[in-house]
Recover the amino acids of this structure.
């Protein structure tokens, strides 16, 4: 039996205020619920904060990609984001980051089921208890 995909959750947040943190927590909660609903295995979550959330240098995304690359040969890996804007609001920048995920052996999906996986039909995985 093929192991369930390994989900790597990514998000970013530029603000340090209480409202921004609350919104971030809600997005992460939604992503965790999506992982559970799909029957995937959670690898963890990586967050770029402050200036790192806006620029092209994203240290935590780089760490996520390193971890994803290490697992990609053993099982299916994916990067789960709440919405496409969580990677980048600029389409060109977002596509560059999505390409980095593909190069690490994975694919990207939002917590609303939108994916860049070619020919994808994303369906829940039956869990073995």
């Amino acid at each position: 039996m093929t192991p369930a995909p390994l989900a790597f959750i990514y998000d970013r947040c530029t603000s340090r205020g209480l409202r921004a943190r609350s919104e971030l927590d809600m997005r992460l909660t939604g992503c965790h619920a999506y992982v559970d609903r799909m029957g995937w295995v959670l690898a963890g979550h990586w967050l770029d904060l402050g200036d790192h959330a806006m620029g092209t240098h994203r240290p935590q995304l780089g760490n996520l990609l390193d971890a994803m690359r290490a697992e990609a040969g053993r099982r299916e890996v994916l990067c789960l984001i709440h919405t496409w804007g969580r990677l980048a609001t600029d389409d060109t920048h977002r596509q560059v980051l999505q390409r980095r995920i593909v190069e690490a052996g994975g694919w990207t999906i939002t917590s609303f089921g939108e994916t860049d996986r070619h020919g994808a039909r994303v369906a829940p995985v039956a869990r073995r208890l």
